[in-house]
Specification:
The structure holds 2 protein chains of 2 kinds. By secondary structure, chain A is an alpha+beta fold. Chain A has 2 helices and 9 strands; from the N terminus they run αβββββββββα. In chain A, the strands form 2 sheets. A 5-stranded mixed sheet of chain A has the order 3-1-9-5-7, with helices on one face. Chain B is an all-alpha fold. Chain B has 17 helices and no strands. The chains are: A alpha+beta, B mainly alpha. At the A-B interface, α1, β5 and β9 of A face α1, α7, α8 and α9 of B.
Chain lengths: ~190, ~525
Amino acid sequence: MTGTTEGKSNNKLVVKLLAVVVGMFGFGFALVPLYDVFCDLTGLNGKTANSAAVFDAMEVDESRLITIDFITRTNSGMSWQFEAQTRQVKVHPGELHQVDFTVTNPSNRPIVGQAVPSVSPGPAALFLNKTECFCFEQQTLQGGETVVMPMKFYVDPQLPDDITYFTLQYTLYDVTSSAQDIAMKSD
Amino acid sequence: MSTATETLEHDEHHEHHIPKGITRWLYTTNHKDIGTLYLWFAFIMFLIGGAMAMVIRAELFQPGLQIVEPNFFNQMTTVHGLIMVFGAVMPAFTGLANWLIPMMIGAPDMALPRMNNWSFWILPFAFMILLSSLFLQGGGPAFGWTFYAPLSTTYSNDSTAFFVFAVHIMGISSIMGAINVIVTIFNMRAPGMTWMKMPLFVWTWLITAFLLIAVMPVLAGAVTMVLTDKFFGTSFFDAAGGGDPVMFQHIFWFFGHPEVYIMILPAFGIISAIVPTFSRKKLFGYASMVYATTSIALLSFIVWAHHMFTTGMPVFAEMFFMLATMLISVPTGVKIFNWVATMWRGSLSFEVPMLFALAFIVLFTIGGLSGLMLAITPVDFQYHDTYFVVAHFHYVLVTGAIFSIMAAVYYWLPKWTGKMFDITLAKWHFWCSLVSVNVLFFPMHFVGLAGMPRRIPDYALQFADFNKWISLGGFAFGLSQLIFLALLIKACRKIGEPVSAQVWEGAEGLEWEIPSPAPYHTFETPPVVK
C-alpha cells in the first residue's frame, strides 16, 4: 500500500501523531521543573528558598507581631535527635532573628543528613527569608557528635495582613547512601 | 479518496481464503481477527481480575483476617485494578474499535494492519510480566493501582520493575492502537462519509484515541520516574533529594483523569448506537452529542486535582477544581437527556442489548451523581479514600463501561457470527448481573459514608452486615459472568438461528448492509454514502 497517495498520507499522519506522543512523554518530564517554578512563584507547597537571602536593614514594621512555631521531625529510619532550642518566637516583620537547632547523632557511625523545610500555611513561605540555614547543605555528623545549628531569618514586611501565625517545620532525612554514591563517583 | 478504488483493487490480489491454524491468529492483519483476539483477551483478563475481586470479597466477608495475609490482600486490590483498567476495559474497547470502525465507515481494513497485529500481540506479554510478579519472592505490586510515591518507591519491593515494564508495554500497545484508529478515521472513510455523518461510536473513539496519545505518554513518564527513583537514585518524588511526593499525584492524575474518560467515551458511542435501534427513531441531538463528547474530553484535562483535595491545596485551587469538575456534568447531562429524548415516543422493544443499554443509562447516572457529590470539596474531606469512592467508580466502570461492552457484544455478536446468540442464557445473564451488581456496589455507598476506608483487609464491627451483603452480591455477580462465558462459547461454535443482514429491525448503518456473518473481507469496493 505504501507508494500510493493514501499510503503517503497515512505515513504523514502517523509521523505527526508520533510527534505528539514523543512531545507528551517530554511534557510528563517537563512537569517536574514546571511544578517547581509554579511552587516557587506561588509558594503553594510551603517550600522556602534553597539559598541564602541578603538582609539589608529595612524598616521594621513595629505595628505587627508575627508568631512563628518551629517543629522538628526526623524521617523514618533517621536516628538523629533533632530539636529546636526555641519552640516559638514572636517577631516584627523586617527584624533579623536567630533560632538554634540542636542535633545529635546517637549512633556509632557517621551519618549524612539533609533538612527539608516546609512552611504552613504555604503562602507564608514566600515571605520567610533565611540569611543563614543549615538546610542549605547536607550535614555530616560523626557517631555520638552533637552540634548546634543556627538559622537566621527575617519576615518580609510585605507579608499579607491576614497571616499572623505560621509554622516552620524541618524534616531531617538520612541521605548517607546517596551522599556516598556521589562521593564515589567524584573520586 | 480518489485513490481508494486503486488501493482496493490492489487488495483483491490478496488471498481470499481464510488461513488456518494458530498462525492465522499470530500473523493476522485482518481487523476482524484482531478485534476477536482483543475481545477474547479482554474477557480472559476480566475473569482473572474478577477472580482477584472474589479473593478480596471473601476476605472482607467478615471482619478480622481469615483467608489472606494483608500484604497479599494489597496485591489483590492493586492487580485487580490494573487488570480491569488496562487488561479488560481498554482492550475490550480496542477490540470493538477494530471490529466496527472499518465496517462503520466503509473501509476494507484498519489503516495500519501490521502495527495492529503488533499492538495486540505485545499485550499478553505485558500481562504475563505483571501476573508473574505475583509469584516472585515478596510478591507483586501492593501499592494500589495508582502507585503513589513513596509507596511505590521507598516502600515497595524489587518486583516494582516488573510492574513498570508491564505498564510501559500496555502503554505502547494503547498508543499504537490509538494511532491506528485516528489514521483509519482520517484517511479511510468511504466517499460521502463526512465528519458529521459518522456514527457516534466512531466519533467517540476518535476523541478517545486523541486522549490516549495525549496522556499515555505522561503515564509512561510517571512510571519511568518511579523506576529511576527506586533503582537509579534520582529524587523526583523524594523530598530528601529536593523532590516532592505530592508532585507524583499531580503527574499521575494528569494522566489519570483523562484515562477515566478513555474508559467511558466509547461506551457513550455504543449506547448512542443501541438506543435508536430499539426505539426505532433517529438519535436525538446527534450534533450536540459530538460537541458534548469533545467538551468532556477537553474538560478532562483541567480537573485532575479533584483527586487530591486532601493534599493541602490552597482554597482557590480547590474552588477551581471543584467548579471545573461540576462543569463536566453539563455535557454528560446533555448525553443522558438525548438518550431519554431518543426513547421518548419511540416504539421501544427490549431485546438484550437494549436491556443492557437501559441499565447503563440508569446505573451510570447513579455513578455520575455520586461523582458530583465527591466533587464538592468540603464533603470530599469526609468521602476521600472511603468505600463511597469505591462505590462511585464501580458504578461508572462496571455498570457503565462494562455494561456498555456487554451491550455492544450482544448487539453486534449476531453480525460477527451470523447466528443469533442464546437469548434465554443472555436474559439470565442480564437479570442475574443487574440484581447482583447492585447488591454488590450499592451498600458500599452506606459503609463509605459511615467511614469504612478503602484498601483494607479488616474493618470495624459495625460494617459487618453490609459487607456480608456486598460479598454475597460480589460472588453472585462473579458467577453470573460464567453464564456469559457459556453463551460466548456457544456463539463462537456458531450454534443458533441464522440472522439476516440487518439482524435487528431498526438497525441503521453500513455494518448492517453487509451479510451476516460479516465476510472476512468487507468493503473492498467502498460503498457510497448518501
